[in-house]
């Protein structure tokens, strides 16, 4: 029996040793870059960034109705979306039609040719507030480090504008808008954070399928290596041996780096295992665990804010009249044309967290309202009735955001169906911003819970969360470093110089 146990232990040690050789460098990358990633994300443009940099609308320059402006495009079908913004210091309609967007100026009905390089330069200069003539321009013929992800493919081709101070702006010729923005500090942060953490190196990331499989397999093997290491460590520690000359029980029968590796493994091995496993889940290896909208959720979203935009319905209250209906001190950055439960409505966006609802008939409101949204969901969710509905004033277990981008307050609605479908709805825009079912709840804890430790009781007490994460990250780095030293020893013994 003892011989069998010893043989199994030797096999596990052999297995762990070679898995460690493969995964020690990725572990070192992941832990080290994870610390940077806590505070420096990959460069991107958020809705808040876009609204902050936008110029307030000039209502006096909106002389065409939405129907008249869209008529200049000579499109047979209605637009998928419509909004009014300032483009190059002029009020303009942005109509989304199929693959891209079309711009029609609201003052004279001129249709903008988005492919013009000079127009792209003007947009980039307006974004940075710098002179466009000072920027170096290049038309991108292939993806670079900052546009390598799949979300940018429908936006190609692009113009890239670079200023001497390090600001870089990418303008898509498809949508005629700024789609990426980087600065020298944001790029440096990404090179030490997101890029090594996600293995986001351009030559690798351009091959999406290979990159995805590599990350999944590498993180999976790393999780197994950590798990086997924990088993080995516990096995060695529990099988106490006696040092005959001194009679001392040796719980850790190693010295030097190997001893330190075992101590760190017993202390931080579980962290290494769960982080590698949850990192694998971020690549969606099990799609059924993801939290996409189900049929009921899609129906709710479509009922609240969906459906074709009836541009003619806005003739009764043209956009300039809608803006003038607001308080004088309200600076509207974007006027969205939409509908709520089939009724046309303007949504005036002042900032990420401040909007005004302007119906064609009725007074201006700050939100659509709890009862109106819940009643609409109740009608469309049949035959599954609403089981629970409540206002969410602060983040909770299934509704968390460390960057505070998810809107608050939110409306929580749970249906009485087999999937236990739950939705978080923004009362300001009446859009579903988060959804969960039976399977996606597992993903919330197995991925976000294990990887970010975003437990409400910890998240809400920063810097407690930072201290815990930094402690675990530092311990994990030390564990990976000792593994690297041991891996070098193993390789040197096999391939002596």
What would your notes on this structure say?
This protein is α+β, with helices and mostly antiparallel strands. Among the domains are: 47-182, no CATH class; 295-436, no CATH class. The protein has helices at 2-37, 47-53, 66-71, 117-128, 184-192, 194-198, 202-205, 208-238, 256-281, 295-305, 319-324, 370-380, 438-452, 456-459, 464-494, and strands at residues 81-87, 90-97, 100-105, 136-140, 158-162, 168-172, 177-182, 241-243, 248-250, 334-340, 343-351, 354-359, 386-392, 410-415, 422-426, 431-436. Helix 9 crosses helix 15 (464-494). The radius of gyration is 28 Å and the shape is globular. The model is unreliable at 243-249 (pLDDT under 50).
Strand-pairing-aware structural class: alpha+beta
- Biggest beta sheet summary: 6 strands, antiparallel
- End-to-end gap: 41 Å
* Average pLDDT level: 89
Low-confidence stretches: 243-249
Q: What count of helical segments does DSSP give? A: 15
Strand percentage: 15-25%
The side-by-side strand order for the widest beta sheet comes to 3-2-1-10-11-12
Percent helix, as a range, is 40-55%
The 3D shape can be described as globular
Radius of gyration, whole Å: 28 Å
Question: How many E strands?
Answer: 16
